[in-house]
Amino acid sequence: MSVPGDPARVGVLISGRGSNLQALLDAAAAYRLGGRVAVVVSNVAEAAGLERARRAGVPAIVQDHRGRSREEHDLSLLAHLQAHGVDLVCLAGYMRLLSPVLIRAYPGRVLNVHPSLLPAFPGLDAQRQAWEHGVKVSGATVHLVDEGLDTGPIVLQEAVPVLADDTPQALAARILEAEHRIYPQAVRLVLSGRLVRQGRRLLEETAP
Amino acid sequence: MSVPGDPARVGVLISGRGSNLQALLDAAAAYRLGGRVAVVVSNVAEAAGLERARRAGVPAIVQDHRGRSREEHDLSLLAHLQAHGVDLVCLAGYMRLLSPVLIRAYPGRVLNVHPSLLPAFPGLDAQRQAWEHGVKVSGATVHLVDEGLDTGPIVLQEAVPVLADDTPQALAARILEAEHRIYPQAVRLVLSGRLVRQGRRLLEETAP
Predict the structure, then answer these.
(1) Residues of B in contact with A153 (CB under 8 A)
(2) What's the predicted TM-score (pTM) here?
(3) How far is CA A60 from each of CA A11, A183, B21, B33, rounded to the nearest angstrom?
(4) Which CATH number fits the domain B8-194, given the four candidates 3.90.950.10, 3.40.50.170, 3.40.50.1980, 2.30.30.30?
(5) For B117, which of A117, A132, A202 is closest by C-beta distance?
(6) B114 noted as active-site residue
(7) Whole-angstrom distance, CA of residue B97 vs CA of residue B35
(8) B42, B58, B137, B170: which could form a disulfide with A157 (CB 3.0–4.6 Å)?
(9) What mean pLDDT do residues A57-78 have?
(10) Complex ipTM, two decimals?
(11) Taking the domains of chain B in order of start, what are their residue ranges?
């Protein structure tokens, strides 16, 4: 864990292009993240996000999940995160479910971004689910990761309109812009230590 | 049914205060509804909405549901609606499920307004459900009524923020303002005849 005066350390897990990773790196570079990205781990060797990390001077690690149990894989991830003193874990297009071993090592300290207004449209291909359902408003959600699928307490959400001539792809692109806005804000909010939990509700403590 | 040149006729079903009925009456008076409210029917004799109808010069009928089957009651409602030449039925705080006999008599012509961004939080007390779930965005939905509970195709939605110091009551009041905005718009859209359906999606046809 970080020492007082040190910026908080964020570990980012990716599987692909890492556009949300880039949003976190950009926010850190502009001192808008409330911490710095200390390590990026990908389960896919070809993930373009690894190069984004390297360009930003952040250690980029490949940890292949194939041929190992979920727990074995997650214990390796955990070792990398702890070796880099990570305080907060961010999933950014990480395409595997986490096992309890990782979630319990970072209680209330694993974040995910999801391309819908949860609890609507959890799971894969949320943008297409929303489009096919015919909603007029969808959006993006940053939430704490618990042991369910996209069920954890919500940190931030942003609404995004669905337009009459949208394709699922056009809608996904508009939602992605919202993800890039709210993910760094949510990280900053969690790192601030000012979020309090009441039931499922996460509320920002206001100054006394 | 209305004859050419005649404004379309809207029938409104209520059970209570009828604030959404008032929004429809106000829109009609301002020629923003695309039709006029031809009759209001309440299943509750004390519903304050009945007086709103009378003040607007609209026939206000009480049809008590007690002691009768759902189908018997809905056949009576249907008789009132047809006697007033109703083209489109709007539920406005009508607290009973409709039977197929009424829905099938007005295919694609029964609307409801619901205080959440459906498909999230269907059913009763949607504002409190959303508040307890800890969402940061909720809203209002106008949808076609089918034989499920709040499952029909969506005509319009408006997002409403959930604020840190909200109570369920404060959130409900903010959502109600959105309901009053989108319900008349949705009625106008349906009456325009320009909505086309693709799967579950309702789209506004643009001019050729």
Answers:
(1) 134
(2) 0.94
(3) 10, 20, 60, 59
(4) 3.40.50.170
(5) A117
(6) yes
(7) 25
(8) B137
(9) 95
(10) 0.93
(11) 8-194
